[in-house]
Amino acid sequence: MLLTRRHTMKRASEFAMVRAEGTSTAGRFLVLNTAPSLDGAHAHSRFGIITTKRIGHAVVRNKLRRQVREILREHAEPLSGGLFVVLVVRASAAKADYRALESDFLHLMRRQLRKMNS
Description:
By secondary structure, the chain is an alpha+beta fold. The chain has helices spanning 12-21, 58-75, 98-117, and strands at 23-26, 30-36, 46-50, 83-89.
């Protein structure tokens, strides 16, 4: 899945809507928040990544964002279909390697899909 400009969230109001109205699943390194598109106008999912200064300096935060974007490119296909998805990177992710982040994301995605289907 390609993450183009139309697949990313930039507005604070979109992030706030997902955090307020969506469902959340927490893992060891990431927190996955999802909310359905309210108006149904979005045929594709939109993704946002939050990395706070608590994680570390800019180099660390940017590295984690790049890793999370790559994980989304590889594995976010089941989350397509008009969802708003926000991934919050936790401070413990700064010491994690790529495979641990990927494993945590896949685990969270399975849990979130089960929540949505039940």
